[in-house]
Amino acid sequence: MPIGSDADLAWVRRRVRQVAAELGFGLVQQTKLVTAASELARNTLVHGGGGQIEITALADGPRRGLRLAFIDAGPGIGDVDLAMTDGYSSACGLGLGLGGARRLVDEFALETRPGQGAVVTVVAWVTGVPPARTPPDD
User: Fold this and answer.
1) Alpha carbon distance 49, 5 (integer Å)
2) Residue 54: which of 122, 124, 116, 131 has the closest Cα?
3) What is the Cα–Cα distance from 130 to 1, expressed in whole angstroms?
4) 113, exposed or middle or buried, with CB in 10 Å at 0-12, 13-18, 19+?
């Protein structure tokens, strides 16, 4: 799915939340995934000049998860270590995008080459299904 405008960023957030809910992620996990997806989609748009997201449901035996891959053909990241440092921003932002996204997911991978774009892939696994709520006895 393309990421080429602010409207696409809103679509990414809605779609990630929808798929996460369908897979059984709890509300807190959904919020973490949506936050990470929002940061990475914005980076794809702002720093990569646009690109795409691939959303893939995962199954590993009884485990369920979600893989999000953000792909762009922009300038790439020259200094990955610096870009992953909290507080660093190449666009006068807060500098929490990549490092913050990494902390919100179970797996994080970054492939980049200067002049050849970037692929950021994150994976989150459903950690447990909250017990069903029962109404209190009156």
Assistant:
1) 10
2) 122
3) 31
4) exposed
pTM above 0.90, yes or no: no
Q: Which residues of the chain have pLDDT under 50?
A: 94-95, 131
What amino acid occupies position 48? Answer: G
Question: What single string gives the DSSP state of each residue in 56-97?
Answer: EEEEETTEEEEEEEEEE-SS--S-HHHHTSTT--SSSS-S-H
- Return the structure tokens found at 25: 């992620």
What is the C-alpha to C-alpha distance for residues 115 and 59, in angstroms, rounded to an integer?
A: 35
Query: What is d(CA 7, CA 14) in angstroms, rounded to the nearest whole number?
Result: 11
Give the pLDDT confidence of 10-32 residue by residue, as tens digits: 999 999 999 999 999 999 999 99
Of 28, 43, 21, residue with least CA distance to 101: 43
Strand partners, 123: 67, 107
